[in-house]
Amino acid sequence: MELPIWFEVGSFVVLGIILLIDLLLVVKRPHEPSMKEAGLWVAFYVALALVFAGAMFYFTGAEYGSQFVAGWVTEYSLSIDNLFVFIIIMARFSVPRKYQQEVLMVGIIIALVLRGIFIALGAVVIEQFSWIFYIFGAFLLWTAWKQATDSGEHEEDVENPLIARIRKVLPMSEKFDGGKIRTTVNGKKVFTPMLIVFITIGMTDLLFAVDSIPAIFGLTQSAFIVFTANIFALMGLRQLYFLLGGLMTRLVYLKHALSVILAFIGVKLVLHAMHVNELPFINGGHHIEWAPEIPTFVSLGVIIGTIVIAVVASLLSPAAKKAQIDARLEEDAKKSMSEAE
Q1: Which residues does 336 contact at the CB level (< 8 Å), separation at least 6?
Q2: Are 206 and 198 in contact (CB under 8 A)?
Q3: In the predicted model, is pLDDT for residue 339 greater than 70?
Q4: Interatomic CA distance for residues 214 and 211, integer angstroms
Q5: Could you give phi then psi for residue 2, rounded to 5 degrees?
Q6: Are 319 and 285 within 8 A, CB to CB?
Q7: How far out from the chain centre does Cα 33 lie?
Q8: Which of 155, 171, 200, 223 could cross-link with 123 by S-S, CB 3.0 to 4.6 Å?
């Protein structure tokens, strides 16, 4: 069954308009959104994703609808986990709260472009080489293991060598000048630290894409579903940043849940690769018939169930209540409060 062309084109047109409106709002009115404003926007984007999921079920059938929901929940969960890195980047470079929305919007645009390229390449490779699922599966299993065992402590304190080199090569001001990339200091044109922030966000987005795209291709081979699931996962991420903030440290079991999900999808990919096997040195180049194909509804149940268990366990855990907010985040919040006063 193929997705209707009118549905694909119409979806991209509507989503493009929404993203454009969101971008214009940020450019015309840079500000730090209140908890209420951020909460309403997040609720709007989640509701929009659910409406789109309903349209997928209605117009394209249960299989494609389930694939979209599973993909969106997975990508959204990975985005929430990666949100903490954005929080650290903002605090580390002391980006004024008023302009953090603009930085996040640029980051989202970069992420969409990079993921679009990865998705297009991934779709072509999958179409031509079924054995790529072995590589995707092994990569996800390795990523799951790394996610579960890596403490991540102090990683954000080590500056990327490329960023350090850019600082030495390019003339750069000490302070931000609003949301500008270039400014004038003593009659000389120089770059502002905002350039480094944009580059850091872009490189982070690239790493996120490398992790997340193989994961969703383990749930669906439709490039349209992969891309729309990524769009909906990124939409509202900017507002979610302000809504969650330091509360991210309380989700102590989210990392473990994501490692379980990535491992599950990795196993599913390996089983799928075995089922459609064409490599001559495995089973004589024949399909391995006993290898099961895990249905989409099973994947969806595992993904949602794992996330729900992790969130509930985190909220009830004594470790979450004792979790300390990063000192830089506390300082950043205090600055925001003093500026508001």
Answers
A1: 32, 97
A2: no
A3: no
A4: 7
A5: -100, 145
A6: no
A7: 21
A8: 223
CA 244 vs. chain centroid, Å, equals 15
CA 82 – CA 78 distance, rounded (Å): 6
Cα gap 141→143, rounded to integer Å: 5
The highest-confidence range among 19-23, 67-71, 168-172, by mean pLDDT, is 67-71
**Cα 174 to the center of its chain, rounded Å:** 30
Cα 200 from Cα 321, distance rounded (Å): 31
Tell me the two tokens of residue 55. Answer: 């349209």
The total of other beta-carbon atoms located within 10 Å of residue 260's CB is 20
Q: Quick check: 290 pLDDT over 50?
A: yes
CB 85 within 8 A of CB 204: yes
- What is the reported pLDDT for 121? 86
Q: What are φ and ψ of residue 124, in 5° steps? A: -65, -45
- Residue 183 forms beta bridges with which residues? 190
User: Residue 192 gets which letter from DSSP?
Assistant: -
- Helices 193-217 & 132-149 angle (0-180, nearest 10): 120
Q: Kindly tell me the burial class for residue 203, based on how many C-beta atoms sit within 10 Å of its own C-beta (0-12, 13-18, 19 or more).
A: middle
pLDDT band with cut points at 50, 70 and 90 for residue 328: very low
Q: 259, 78 in Cβ contact below 8 A?
A: no
Mean pLDDT of the chain: 79
**Residue 253 class from Cβ within 10 Å (0-12 exposed, 13-18 middle, 19+ buried)?**
buried
